[in-house]
Amino acid sequence: MQWLSLSSPFNLQLSLECGQFFQWYPNEKGYIIQTGQKIFYLQQKNHTLQLKAIAGSVDEEFLCHFLRLDDDLSEIFNDWKQDPFVTSLFNRYQGLRLFRQDPWECLVSFVCSSASNIPRITSNLQTLSQNFGTEIRKDGQIYHILPTLDQLRRAPLEELYASGIGFRARYLYQITRILSEDKPVEALCNLSYDHSRFYLTQLPGIGDKIAECILLFSLGHLEAFPADTWIKKVLNRFYRSSPGTSSEKISAWAKERFGRNAGYAQQYLYHYARQQL
DNA sequence: CTCCAGGAACGAC
DNA sequence: GTCGTTCCTGGA
Questions:
Q1: What is the pTM of this model?
Q2: Using CA atoms, how far apart are residues A196 and A173, in angstroms rounded to an integer?
Q3: Is A132 exposed, middle or buried (CB count within 10 Å of its CB: 0-12, 13-18, 19+)?
Q4: A64-77 pLDDT, tens per residue?
Q5: Which phi and psi angles does A123 have, rounded to 5°?
Q6: Residue A24 φ then ψ, to 5°
Q7: How far does the CA of A249 sit from the C1' of B7, in Å?
Q8: C1' (C7) to CA (A247) span, angstroms
Q9: What is the sign, positive or negative, of the torsion defined by CA atoms of A176, A17, A63, A59?
Q10: What is the residue-averaged pLDDT of chain A?
Q11: Residue A50 three-state SS
């Protein structure tokens, strides 16, 4: 167990529960969080984080990276000081940060997210982990890691369906036939936004919206702007956007309107929409 | 007036 | 949400 002091605004609960990441669950006064081969407990007390590694090495450097504690929120939102609405959300949801997720896990998560909801997505990932992932026993507890590409590829289509992910099973199955250790999702890490987007969109089950999610949440393209039904509602109401506009067009508009960190504006707008609309 | 790219509309998954 | 299909429209 160790304590880390935060030097910048951060709200663990807000960032964890806002719908960008699904591998967590409440535990005691904090949360158990899983990503990659790491499992750890995290609790926030004002300006400090209490950390307890359960599996894998979890140090301050990793946390800083994963939680994007290095993002200067006030500098980012300074670009939108002319926008009273976004500015009010910045003050209202202080410490809401984007995470820097693992690309493969992010892909699996969001392919499962189409036409679904947060509780179900969380449950789907747990089932996939139990059915095809590595089991880890620690202190009398059993944990299951989300299956790697290689592990998921060994899963028969029928068993994928049996994991409760419905029609998304076929997408995941097809994706495991396309991706390989030689060309994994991680290979998109250093490519441009456009290039990665094109490639992702090429994969079955990944359209404009989900591609933006992966670009933003795991590939570090902060200009990405996932446009789902909630975002459409807010933009419709506060930015006079036309009701039937496609996700692709909205993302393009937002990139123009909010610039290189549009994804941060998206996260705050999204949270507002889910909370108030 | 035909051809066709491209976007809205639907239903299925 | 994504995808395949149908339908419709404006430009060549």
A1: 0.97
A2: 21
A3: buried
A4: 999 999 999 999 99
A5: -65, -40
A6: -155, 160
A7: 12
A8: 22
A9: negative
A10: 97
A11: strand
